[in-house]
Design brief:
alpha+beta; single chain; 25% strand; 320 residues; 10 helices; 7-stranded antiparallel beta sheet
Amino acid sequence: MGYATIRHVPRVQDYKTALNIYNNTKPLRGRNPEIRPLGNRRDPDTYHIRKSGEAIELVLYKTPVITFEADGDVVLFIDGYNSVSTHQFIDHVLNIRARGARRTTVLTIGGNKYTLADTDKLRLRMEDGNWRFLNPKTQWGWKLNRKEITNVRTKYGEFYKYLKGFVNLRSEVVKEHRWQPEKDYVVVPKEEFSSVSSLVSLRDYKYMDKRGKQHLNWMNVTPEQYQASAKAFEYLIRPDQPEDGKHTNFYKAALVLIAKLYADTMDIRTEQVYAQSKHIVPLLDDVLFMLYAEQVLVRYELPMGKVSSGIYEHWMQSWE
């Protein structure tokens, strides 16, 4: 679909016009169920018009994106298809600017923005030549609670201090590839991981940053896998563990973080493992904040028309 085909689709602003188009469009021969093209008769599988009770539906592929109801209401429905084709269809037919933002459709009327996500149904009505939205959808987002973040960092402060010292001590300026600029990296030889393989099995930790509906290596991560990995890592950095094994466990945890930055699957296949220094401590933040997500995240209402950045949403998604 593109401009060459959408330009044949009529602009429709009200129920009367939609009904008139429906009544004056002959169904295609040989089609069962009946199908009435919307615009060019060569594009019936892309655009068509149909009747549902008294309502007139303007269909894009198989989705009734725009429905004109007899009482004057217009219903927008994208059925999860937050696509360029959907936005172009709404824009052309209703003269409402539509665009996509982080899996959500954003509509603009008179400088005001409204959102339409997944299976939402957004109602609007033409009044005095302008569209008015009747049931604007409230969007929600998640943000970090700074006080609770401080509490988590304080709880594991001993390991944070160890890790920062480890990074400072092991960092070196490296040009990993000849086409890249020099950067600070922690470089760990493969044999260093091998030497502690009897102490730490990297595969036990590979799901530790996969809270929520996520996947690893194209496979869905289960809540049991995440919890096992996250708890195993947390055990290594606990402040209340026996002192005689604490330093060894801290060392293991540092290597685990470096391996995770090197490869999401933590599969070490090169002789040298490179982890950019500035990303190591932030990864620790992510792992701990995911583990304490209910504590460190706060749900809040977004301004009308704003769409969440999505940074933290996946942490709180259900696995179901």
